[in-house]
C-alpha cells in the first residue's frame, strides 16, 4: 500500500480540523517548551565538511575540524578504567538486569513441533510444564557488577589464564557475558568473541587459530554446540559455564575441566594484587565476524580503539545519562551490540537483557496476554538491525490492508499528516499512541548492520514515535563511522562522520565512481581515526589489502562500500564493490540496489539477486511472505504445502509478475529487473548459514545452496 498518495481534499481538511482543536490545548504549549521550532533549522545545517577543501575529503564533523577525539575523559583510555570510572560515579545505580524465569510450558504447534512459550500467568503456578512465567527484572548494581567482574577475573587467573593470552566467549546475550568481558578487560585477557550461531567448522577454526585454553559458555550452548567439537580443539583445557546451577556433564573428553561461573568467582574472592592492567594499545577483543564471504576473520580491537569508538557514538546521542535504560537483545559478539552496551556503561545507564523471542508482547515465546520485555523494562534506548524493523513494518502494513476502507483511510490520513508535521520539524501528540509497542518510553532507536529502507525508516519515525539514528560502521572500525543526528528525518542517509572518525572517498574507475562526480562526490569509503582497528588476526595478506597508515601516522580502513557526500556533509551508501556485477552487454548491476527496492514488496520477506558476467539478465532467490503467498495461491486455486506451492511453476510465474511490477514502481532499469526466480519455502536465518547474525546475505553460501537452480535458470532447463 502506498501511504503517500493523493487523498480526498475534503477528508484531509476534516481530519486537520479535528487535530487543530486538540492541538490548541496540547500542541501550542508543547511547542514553546520543547524547542521544536529549531529542529528543522538544526536538520538543515552543515554537519561535516572536507578539511582539505577537496571534494574527496577527508570529511570531519563540523565540531571537530582540527582534531579527532580519542576519549571522553582524560586518563580513561582503557576499558577497565572506563568501568571503574562508572562504578565509582554510579555505585548503587542499576547496571545489569535479568528478567526472572519462574517456570516453563511446552506448546504443540499445528505442524507438530514443540515450542516453548513464556507468559505472566498466575505467579503461584510454578510447576515445570505448565507455563513459563516471566517475573520482574532483577538488577546488579554498578558496584556489584564491578566486584563480580573483579572476582571472576581473579578466579580465571587462579585457573591458569595469563595476561595477553587469548580467552574465548561463546555465549548468548546476557548479563553474565558483560561481567565476563569486563573481567577479561581488567586482567588484560584478550577476549575472543564467537557468534552463538556459527557452525562447528567456524567455531573450531576460531578457537584453534587463537590457541585458547579457556572458554566461557552457557549450559545450553555447551550441550547443543560446543560439546561436539571439543575433540577438535586440542589446546582447550577449561570450560566455564555461566549458569548458576549446571547439571552433570556426561561425555566430556578427558582432560577438560568444567567449572561454574560462581565457582570461579569464589576462587577469585581473595585479594589479588597481581593484576596486570592493560595499555591502550593492548588487544581487548578478537572479534570473529560472521562475514558474508569465506571463513570468519578475527578482527583485533585494542582498548584504545573501543574507547575512541564509543566516545564518538555517545556524542551523537542527545542527553545520554544515567537515567536512560537500554534493552540488550542483539548478539553481543556483534560490534553493534557490544559498542552500544559499552556506550551505556560509560554513562551509567541501566541495561536490561532480552531476546528476539521475548522482546515484545507479540514475540514468539510470549504467551498471549502476557507482557514482553519491552513492556516491563520500558527502555529509552534501543538498537536494531534493519531486518527486524522491516518485519515490524510489513506486519503492521499487512494488518492495515485487512482493515475496512474507512479504517484504512483514517490510518493513511493520520500517517500522512504526521509525516507532513515531522518534515516541518514538529511532533503530533494526537498520533503518538503506537509507541507502547516498545514500552512507551523509547526516545532513540539506533539502526545499524545494513542499510535501512526509506519506507521502514519513515514508518519507525511515524508509528513508533521516536527518531531513528541510522549508523554506518564495521567491525574493522569498532562499529563507528557515522550516525545521523536525531532531528534529521531525511531518509536513505547515514549521517555525518563521528567525532572519532574522518572519511574520504577514493575513486573507483571500474565502477564509474569519482570524487569529481556531479552533483555529489562519489567513491569507495575509507575511514580513518583512532577507532580503526589493528587488523585481522594472523592474516597479513588481508591486512595489506584493507588497511594502511598515512604520512601522519593515522590508520585507515578501505571498506569496499561506495558512498556519496551530500552538501550538508552527510554520507549516503549507494553501492558495494562486491555487489556490482557487469552483465554480458556491459551494463553494471548493483545487486544490493535490486534487493533494497524489491524488499519493499509485501510479498517478499527476503531476496538475493544474482548475476553472472557471461549472462545478460539477473535472477533472484526469494523467501516469500507465507501469508501473502498463500493468498496468491488461493486466488490461483493452487493447493498444497508451502514447499509444494513454492515449487509450482505457475506460482513462480505469478510471483515474478508481481515482483516485476514492484521493480518498475521502484524505478529499476530494464536490465536490473530479475527475469527468473526461485521461491524458498524455508526462511533464511543465521542457523541455516545463509545469512549472518546481522541478517546480511552470505552470497557465497547462497550460491552454493542454489547452484542447481542457477544452472536451471541460466541453462533454460
Quickly list its features:
single chain, 717 residues, alpha/beta, Rossmann fold, GMP Synthetase, Chain A, domain 3, 3 domains, nine-stranded mixed sheet, eight-stranded mixed sheet, globular
Radius of gyration: 26 Å
Q: Please report which band the strand proportion falls in: under 5%, 5-15%, 15-25%, 25-35%, 35-45% or over 45%.
A: 15-25%
CATH class descriptor of the largest domain: Mainly Beta
Strand count, sense and barrel status of the largest sheet are: 9 strands, mixed
Number of domains: 3
Mean of the pLDDT scores?
Answer: 86
* Count of discrete alpha- or pi-helical segments spanning 4 or more residues: 21
Please give the alpha-carbon distance between the first and last residues: 36 Å
Strand order of the largest sheet: 6-3-15-14-16-17-18-19-20
> What fraction, in percent, of the residue positions are helical?
25-40%
Give the overall shape: globular
Q: Could you state the CATH homologous superfamily of the largest domain?
A: Luciferase, Domain 3
CATH architecture of the largest domain: Roll
Detail the poorly predicted runs. Answer: 19-36, 119-131
Secondary-structure class: alpha/beta
- Counting copies of identical and different chains, the oligomeric state is single chain
CATH topology annotation of the largest domain: Luciferase, domain 3
